[in-house]
Write the structure tokens for this entry.
Amino acid sequence: MLFRSHGRLYISDEALSQIVVLDSYGRYQFRFGEFGVFGVKFNEPQGLALDEYGHVYIADKGNNRIIKVDARGEKMMDIPASEGHLVAPVDVKVLGDGRIYGLDKAGIKQYSALGRFEKMVLAVDKANAFTVDEQQRWVVAFKEKGAVRIYNAKGEVLLTLADIEDRKSTR
């Protein structure tokens, strides 16, 4: 996954358990992380998010946590599995109000800016990625189902976009 902050491009490298940072021209700047459990060590880093201050949030799937680092990769905070029963997170988002949203096996969970579990926002099974707008409309991707669903703030499905090839094969 790629995200841009302050002229930098952050790439989550799941295979090598690290984050690679490039400049705005695609030139290598530095990397941080390695395989492991504690500190700035990862086990299958997945989705990335950036806040307005340039802090990077990483969904660390294999370690069942979301970790926050500064722009240089120094650990600032983590949201451990014990907060809201976080299990195998695959994506993360941070909204302007500082709230953190993590997508794990159970669905999308909301955390305070300090990483405290607040509530389950949307229960979805086997989702791979998500985004949200300021009106709390949730766009959720399901790789296995070949579909994208859009939900309103109440969790009601507004629209489902399915893979056309998948529809042809079921007729």
